[in-house]
Amino acid sequence: MALLFLCLVLTHLAYLQNVSANFYSNFDITWGNDQAKILDNGQQLQLTLDQSSGSGFQSKNEYLFAKIDMQIKLVPGNSAGTVTAYYMSSQGDKHDEIDFEFLGNLCGDPYIVQTNVFSQGQGIREQRIYLWFDPTADFHTYSVLWNPQQILFSVDGTPVRVFKNNENVGVAYPKNQGMRIYSSLWNGDDWATRGGLVKIDWSKAPFVASYQNFNAQVCTSSSDCSANAWYSQASLDSGEQQQLRWVRKNYMVYDYCSDTKRFPQGLPTECTH
Predict the structure, then answer these.
(1) What whole-number distance in Å separates Cα of residue 176 and Cα of residue 90?
(2) What are 93-102's contacts with CB under 8 Å, separation 24+?
């Protein structure tokens, strides 16, 4: 009995350790065949888009709450019309989803980062920002903290968006469906760059996005994570609040919570809480 108890304790402690790349161990390439490649003994992954196909991958496991980090180097040069998506999602018509989407642009123009949150199949919660650096010159860390209180999007440790749990005022919140981690590189030139006015220049193909240093602290149920500080984080500290205000003031280009033309009958409930 003592040996069984020790075994259970050690198993639980091991589970609470970080999940980290090797990409071979944690992800499956799901489409694109040879367009997606795992390199350097599993330490890097590349997605490629050309006229024949895009490509994508997903995590082997699904999680209920997580703190995930991925270093990504986005498509360089003229990336107009390309979309690099990095997100978590469950399945089905009433799915939950937490999105980063990187919208390519003409050479010299900034990338747009679009974030979105779906709960019970309902999205329309887009925010868009420019980045304060060139995301194609080097790897940068894009993070999601998802716990029962909030969803926090961060770039290189700087908060860029918070979506709070507002179930108390009738807003659905992702908390019951396990999600896998996904990423894909695909042709979105019907909408991604200037509303679809700028199309992909296929003479610049292949387009390549690169990934490394995946790290995650994950749960499969709330009991697995109750001892972790990130799981109970309910708000930003004063420094993080200041950083978020800086991002919103200087780099935000669209916020659904300010789009009264889109919502003539009134802004979504969470926008006023």
Answers:
(1) 10
(2) 93/121, 94/120, 94/121, 95/121, 95/177, 96/120, 96/174, 96/177, 96/179, 97/123, 97/174, 97/179, 98/144, 98/146, 98/151, 98/174, 98/179, 100/142, 100/144, 100/153, 102/72, 102/74, 102/135
* Dihedral (CA of 212, 217, 219, 222) sign: negative
Q: Can you give the C-alpha Rg of the chain in angstroms?
A: 19
DSSP β-bridge partners for residue 86: 100, 183
Task: For residue 126, indicate whether it is catalytic.
Answer: no
Q: Return the residue matching tokens 């019951």.
A: 176
Query: Which is catalytic among the residues 101, 126, 167, 240?
Result: 101
- Report how far apart, in Å, the C-alpha atoms of 217 and of each of 43, 116, 229 are: 18, 21, 11
H or E stretch including 260?
A: none
CA distance from start to end of the chain = 51
Per the CB < 8 A criterion, the answer to whether 184 and 55 are in contact is: yes
Is 167 annotated in the active site?
no
Find where tokens 């009134």 sit: 266
Cβ–Cβ < 8 Å for 159, 153: yes
**Which residues, in sequence order, are CB contacts of 136 under 8 Å at separation 6+?**
73, 74, 75, 76, 77, 79, 111
- Which is the catalytic residue, given 97, 126, 167, 240? 97
SS (H, E, C) 168-200: HHCCCCCCCCCEEEEEEEEECCCCCCHHHCCCC
Model confidence at 36: pLDDT above 60: yes
| 107-165: pLDDT as tens digits | 889 999 999 999 998 999 999 999 999 999 999 999 999 999 999 999 999 999 999 99
Phi/psi of residue 251, each to 5°?
Answer: -130, -5
